[in-house]
Amino acid sequence: MQWLRAAVLGATDGLVSVASLMMGIGAVKQDVRAMILTGFAGLVAGACSMGIGEFVSVYSQRDVEVAQMKRDNRTEMEALPNPIQAALASAVAFMLGAMMPLLSAAFVVDHKVRLGVVVATMSLALVVFGWVGAFLGRTPVVKSCFRIVVGGWMAMAITFGLTKWIGSTGL
């Protein structure tokens, strides 16, 4: 079940990270090519980062569990988390999440419409992710969806605002 948590986290992170990067570059550049290249770079870097981070995290957890089994003289190896499976799930899910804003913006010529499409796509996808998370965790759906959508909006707004401000100051 470790891989499922990694996949949900990876998809959400891919969606929010790449959409926020695209909104940030969209704050200072109207060029669709710049926005797509920034999003693609974020997809590749983020997928690598998520995969490596998940691998290291799960491998560390596995090492702790193996050490505890040795101390307890147990040999239940099948119950151990699989770091490769978690890393792959996280990296692939990140890429899938990141592809949503990339594909939504790729064919929109008008700059303002493109920004709106990215926000709308991310918002809808986050509602779906919030619903899935609530369903899997058996928690309240509205609260879960609200929390994830507002968090995504905050990430985009902060990235957009700070990039716009830095871009306007000439840095």
TrEMBL record:
Gene Ontology, cellular component aspect: membrane; vacuolar membrane
Domain of life, source organism = Eukaryota
Which keywords are on file for this protein? Ion transport, Iron, Iron transport, Membrane, Transmembrane, Transmembrane helix, Transport, Vacuole
The processes (GO biological process) annotated in the record are: intracellular manganese ion homeostasis
Q: Does the keyword Membrane apply?
A: yes
Q: Which Pfam families match?
A: VIT1
Question: How does this chain sit within the bilayer?
Answer: Multi-pass membrane protein
Q: Which reaction does it catalyse?
A: Fe(2+)(in) = Fe(2+)(out)
InterPro entries attached to this UniProt entry: Ccc1_fam
One example GO MF annotation: iron ion sequestering activity
Q: What is its main location?
A: membrane
List where the protein spans the membrane: 7-28, 34-59, 80-109, 115-136, 148-167
Task: State its location(s).
Answer: Vacuole membrane
Q: Does the keyword Membrane apply?
A: yes
Return the similarity comment. Answer: Belongs to the CCC1 family.
Q: What does the UniProt function comment say about this protein? A: Vacuolar Fe(2+) uptake transporter.
According to UniProt, the name of this protein is: Vacuolar iron transporter
Q: Which species is this UniProt entry from?
A: Helianthus annuus
